[in-house]
Design brief:
- The protein is of the alpha+beta class.
- The chain has a single domain, classed as START domain (Alpha-D-Glucose-1,6-Bisphosphate, Chain A, domain 4, 2-Layer Sandwich).
- It is built from two helices and eight strands.
- The chain has an eight-stranded antiparallel sheet, with helices on one face.
- Strand 5 and strand 6 form a beta hairpin.
- The longest helix has 28 residues.
- The radius of gyration is 16 Å and the shape is globular.
- The two termini are 27 Å apart.
Length: 176
Amino acid sequence: MFGHFGFPSSGVRAHAQRGSRGGNGFFEVEASGFARGSPAQAWAVMSDYERLADFVPDLESSRVLSRTGPVAIVEQVSRVGIMLMSYVVRMQVRIEERPMSAIDVSLISGDMRHYAVHWKLEPARQDGVDGTLLRFSGELEPQFFIPPMVGQSVVQANVRQLMEAVVSAIEKRSAH
């Protein structure tokens, strides 16, 4: 989630800020973007967990371990680079789906202290074009050290890159 890719901005907005709870630091993140594709097309891209590594920056693998109705257990491996350091982050997450409208992701186990994010999809119209408004929000707390001087800007840039990558993947699929 912390890499560098050059995707067009597509009106993407992203914000990250540091928080603290019980002496532990975490990041609150939020982002939004408009994709030229229907909510059904957006859903098809975002819920294809086995293919997320094809377009999500720094995600090396994503595989479904189990699925029961609207709940999937997914194992993901990312390579995170911060300044001159590089980390491999393994996570097992629980993904709860509300088809065509929302995806909630929560940490079961792995290399994060805390990871809980929410994706929301809404039909929208922008500049006379029908599409989907994507909203992303959550809290994350890595187990590895992120220098305070760069942490917030690094996390914010990477949340932006994540949203840009998702918007781009939806628009590519919608164009076919």
